[in-house]
Amino acid sequence: MSAINLNNDLRDILERISGMCSKIESMLSLCLDGFMKHKIVLIDEAREVSQAIHNEENELISLLSNKATKPDMDKELVKSMMAIVGHFELATNELDVVLQNVRVKVAEGVLFSDKGVNEISHLFRETLTVLKTTGDIILTKNDVLVKHLTDKYASLNQIVDAYSQEHEDRLIKGICQPKSSSLYLNIVDSLMKVVWHMKQAVNRFFGNR
Asked: Taking the model in full, what pTM does it have?
């Protein structure tokens, strides 16, 4: 990819945007630990990180809005950076949903089947990989990583389709209870929306070359 012409101010903002992605990764990691270790305190820590991300989003949008008023500023680039921040914000909203569902699971002692736990933990880890890759892409503008992210999204869609069929089978056989089913489906759906928002953020950034 050809280098994007960034002045120092925009470069600093771009680094903050990448840092925002790292915070989302941290939030998800805490949520995964809370899910696996059945600890509400970890969910509470993740909630604090979430608030920090939302605060960062407000600051970054304000900064970028101010930059857009400068006469010599690349307004299309600024708009694409604002779009990235917006997608990161929406991804965080989806993780807030994940946190809420994991909190219910832990607080109420809702049990998942071993298969369900393995599937959810796998999606958590794959989403963590997507988040790390997205942060790296924002800083390096690496085409190979973009291709990797696109392929990962397609692969995860196939995996989730297979998981959904297996989940339905468990539900029919009574292995999975309705309460567990609702939590499971909400978590899976929100994690996939997180991955989608990462893909959209990268596509928007790379569309401005």
From this structure: 0.91
